[in-house]
Amino acid sequence: MHDLTENRSVLLKIFYPVAALVLVVGAWAFLVWFYEVPRYVMPSPSDVANHISEDWQTLVKGFGVTFLEFLLGFTLGAGTGFVFAVLMDMSRTVRGILYPILILSQAIPIIAISAALTIWLGFGLAPKLVIVALVVFFPVVVNVLDGLASVDKDVLNLVRSMGASKFSTFRHVKLPATYSPLFSALKLSATFSVTGAVIAEWTASTSGGIGAYLLQANSRLNTAGTFSAITFLAALGIVSFLLVVAVEYLLTPWKSGHKARRWSRSYWQE
Amino acid sequence: MEQAPKLALMGVSRTFGDLTALSSTELAVKPGEFISVVGPSGCGKSTMFNIIAGVLQPSTGKVLIDGKDVTNQSGHVGYMLQKDLLLPWRTVLDNIVLGAVLKGGASRAERDEGVALARRYGLGDFINHYPAALSGGMRQRVALMRTLAMHHDVMLLDEPFGALDSQTRLSMQQWLLSVWEKEKRTIVFVTHDIDEAIFLADRVVVMTPRPGRIHEIIDVPIERPRPVSSLTRPEFVALKQRILGTIYNNASPANEEAAPHA
Questions:
Q1: Where do the structural domains in chain B lie, given as residue ranges?
Q2: Which CATH topology does B7-77+154-261 take?
Q3: Interfacial residues of A (vs B; Cβ cutoff 8 Å)
């Protein structure tokens, strides 16, 4: 009985997004056909599908390029943000100095600095990584700082009375407390990061990423190409988001179940 | 003093700015003794508790365990609060062995001991559960097992059963007494509940506020083991009256205003 309802809820979890997708694509196809919209204004789903299959290799390669920019930049930004937050939590002086810089970094529009970054760092991967990292960096710092500050003072006293060193207090009490807010920040910024990668590719595009592909298709009024790129970018955003969700599922088992997972190290067996 | 005290406070006091949270305090607890501390809020119970636990520095005085100066040193006593303070990301077992984990990792033997504790006290089916899946009473039992697993001779309990319903509370009190009798630990038990204080303790420390201090220390001459029926014996009721009188006369605002004219 219990298994049955659980299976049903898993099926529904798959069914709803698929149904939503079918609905959107169906409406799109119908409207284009019904109003006889010219192809250069709005291609039909089948036009886009045709274009994708014709240009499959370039698109897949572009997907790989942009995905790599996202993955490296995202990891870089999240990692740096995490370290910043820990340093700021440890020292009031560091926090006092870094906070205004952080807010400044967030106040400058990314588009404004992307040109400068190209001048400094060239046309390669580096400026894209920096821009993607900048997108994730701020939310990660703010949320991780919140997580570190949210640890109950009584818990800190307790573990101190148990003889915990500063390091083991950090490792066993403070660090795990940052996971929830950290992943909230990562989920929010995963899709924005893809936007960041696209903006970076628009500024300087020798990489052949999806953003560069989009720009080219656009300038040639190749709407089927534009929509193919958009399709791939949407897929990229969803993949990025799901990746974060998967890592969260692996790292925070207490949020998704009552018991330790059977294969985990903390699961006790006779 | 025929016996060297297990735990001794010598002239311990603490001020916060102008406020004297605890004025100079002497207290000697014998090995294996069960001491209850009662008093209204602001009487310095928590301050004294935190100083003994080593997480708060006293303004003056020393804390001795087995004659050794442990003032402002943590890690010498087991410690439990009304809040269970379980770590949500650790399973029941991993919370029980937290003391060992914090000192570098729990060995197989320490984990086995944690499992034995969980089984003995009715949590055998919940060893791999996270705290969020447990009831308040179960969580509090895990917290007590965490304290037991640390093998300290002295255990400090600050209203550990304060958040439990009265049935659970009574059975937890009896369980605590049986553990204490078996393991010969020295226990300092802070509570608001005068019945609980008398029922559990060899001696009751009565504290009063403004400034926080020990007002008197009362022996509980009721033999052990104590059945629930001892709660209604005349000696018990007389002790309760005496403690209530002390606390009421010293804590009532009317009394405080009248004092200068007296």
A1: 7-77+154-261, 85-151
A2: Rossmann fold (3.40.50)
A3: 152, 154-155, 157-165, 168-169, 172-173, 176, 179, 252-254, 257-260, 266-268
Instruction: Give the Cβ contact number of residue B104 at 10 Å.
Output: 9
pLDDT at B1 over 60: no
| The pLDDT of residue B150 | 87
Measured CA to CA, the distance from residue A145 to residue A167 in angstroms comes to 17
* Domain spans, chain A: 1-36, 43-255
CATH superfamily of A43-255: MetI-like (1.10.3720.10)
- Give the tokens for residue A149: 């500050």
Residues of B in contact with A257 (CB under 8 A): 130
Altogether, the residues listed in chain A come to a count of 270
Which residues from A are below 8 Å from B104, CB to CB?
Answer: 168
pLDDT, tens digit (0-9, with 9 covering 90-100), for B162-213:
888 888 888 888 888 888 887 788 999 999 899 999 999 999 999 988 888 8
Q: Do A172 and B103 touch (CB under 8 A)?
A: no
E strands in chain B: 7-16, 19-29, 34-38, 60-65, 68-69, 78-80, 154-158, 186-190, 203-208, 213-219
- Nearby residues of A71 by Cβ (< 8 Å), 6 or more positions away: none
- Which of A45-49, B1-5, B230-234 has maximum average pLDDT? A45-49
Contact check, Cβ <8 Å, B127/A268 = yes
Q: Is B62 in the A-facing interface, judged by CB distances under 8 Å?
A: no
**Which chain A residue's Cα is nearest to B94?**
A266
Tell me if B103 and A158 make a contact (CB, 8 A cut-off).
no
Which residue does chain B place closest to A177, by CA atoms? B89
Closest of A179, A196, A85, A72 to residue A134, by C-alpha? A196
Residue identified by tokens 């255990």 is B155
Cβ contact, residue pair A254, B132, below 8 Å: yes
Give the list of residues 6+ apart from residue A268 with CB closer than 8 angstroms, or none: A260, B91, B93, B111, B115, B127, B128
B103: closest chain A residue by CA: A164
- Tell me the HSE value of B94 on the side-chain side, using a 13 A CA sphere: 21
Q: Chain A within 8 Å of B54 (Cβ-Cβ)?
A: yes
Rounded CA separation A87/A93 (Å): 10
Put simply, the answer to whether A157 touches B90 (Cβ < 8 Å) is no
